[in-house]
């Protein structure tokens, strides 16, 4: 564990200014943006909010890809590959760090913000768990793309392509999905969302582990396709699956 | 005992073809290494020599599991190379001209980062090597010259007294002073007898100073392995008086690189033995004055690199 922490410390030091910016961005988003909006002209509020949100998303994307590719899992010129740093130790360090930065920290910020509104009691725990699941799913998916590519641009292309591919597939499938599926899906939005998020996380984790531990790129490509097709199927045929599996 | 045992190792790469290639019998894979069998004894300093693209870097990459072999296997420190783990890598040093060191760190931070991973890291040796290599500890790695970077990489691979040190073109692009620093640093570590070194390099003068065994690879195939002493002993440049009358007949296959000019005929005898060579010379050049001169490893390497070119036998006539 000491050596895992040693690797985390190395990344924390290297990305220290980026982390500071990320923290600042989260703090602004949760604690300052609403107040700042009050003093601006009304027509600027929405634009300002969307612009800052987008900026923070792109920054988080670049930071996450940078973190994953700092010690690239497959590149043969990577320093760690010929040092006594096992792939398991490295991937553990990376997952702990991205989990803390991109899941735990934003959830914590929301919790602190909600301290003043009463949404922090145990009754609302599932709300926080859902936010963590959404953030975890997105974080792991981006990290999986980063582990399969060489730079941020390639990672962005992979992510955007997968989103479009999944969306197009879901659109095509929805035209042929049975009526029962559509009716049930409307009533089971939460269950469907949880299934898609859980499925995405599992596939992304499998890709990350494959890239670090096995380094079979062909397996990762198959997993990416399986993830996209699986998500589209869950999105459109969920009610159908549920209806027949419960009979 | 051998610290490296390579058995029938082959490596093929996928190559980019085109639709045009489909019509012909073009292979879509390139064989970088073919059926390589080689062993490296513990405590030796062995050199892999060969032209560009001969397969030297591929061999070293296979040994440290940067590549998975297409066929065959390699045992490093008694463990299959594809199964090397933290325990083995703590005893292996690998320095390559292509290796990327962690960015954003100073030399001191880089050493501080490496140290905890090695139980045998020697702080005194680290300090001694820092002084020998004259490295600026407060300068960032990204601001170091190529030579300084190579020294930093070498330092980080010597300070834990590795059992095995693999060096891939460590002298490439270095000026003579830095090259000498690196060689001296290596010699100092090797002389203590704890480290086995396998080095791939084009810099044959430096290899000659370091290596006690030499392996030649050509187009992915091992041509020979022998001690540097025996290799230097069996190669001679033979100079024959040009006025000599050449007796026709098949020349020995070990006589290479015929050259004529300036009143002399010269060739390289790759199987030199004083008595045998003198008797063969008497047979082929009965009345000529013959002289034999030793060659450097560099001359031998160039001779072997050219030996497949057409044999100008007529030049001797």
Description:
Chain A is mainly alpha-helical and 247 residues long. Helix content of chain A is 84%, strand content 0%. In chain A, helix 8 runs antiparallel to helix 9 (217-245). Chain A is globular. The N and C termini of chain A lie far apart (48 Å). In chain B, the strands form three sheets. In chain B, strands 6-7-8-3-9-10 form a six-stranded mixed β-sheet, with helices on both faces. Helix content of chain B is 31%, strand content 29%. With 317 residues, chain B is of the alpha/beta class. In chain B, helix 7 links the parallel strand 7 and strand 8. In chain B, 34% of the residues are buried. The chains are: A mainly alpha (247), B alpha/beta (317). Chains A and B meet through helix 1 of A and helix 3, strand 6 and helix 4 of B.
Uncertain residue segments of chain A: none
Quote the average pLDDT of chain A: 87
Helical content of chain B (DSSP H or I, runs of 4+): 25-40%
How large a portion of the residues of chain A is in β-strands, by DSSP E?
A: under 5%
Helix content of chain A: over 70%
User: Distance between the terminal alpha carbons of chain B, to the nearest Å?
Assistant: 50 Å
Give, in order, the helices and strands of chain A: HHHHHHHHH
What's the oligomerization state? heterodimer
Q: In terms of per-residue confidence, which ranges of chain B show pLDDT below 50 for 5 or more consecutive residues?
A: 18-24, 312-317
Secondary-structure-based class of chain A equals: mainly alpha
Largest sheet of chain A: none
Structural class of the secondary elements of chain B? alpha/beta
Distinct helical segment count of chain B? 11
Number of helices of chain A: 9
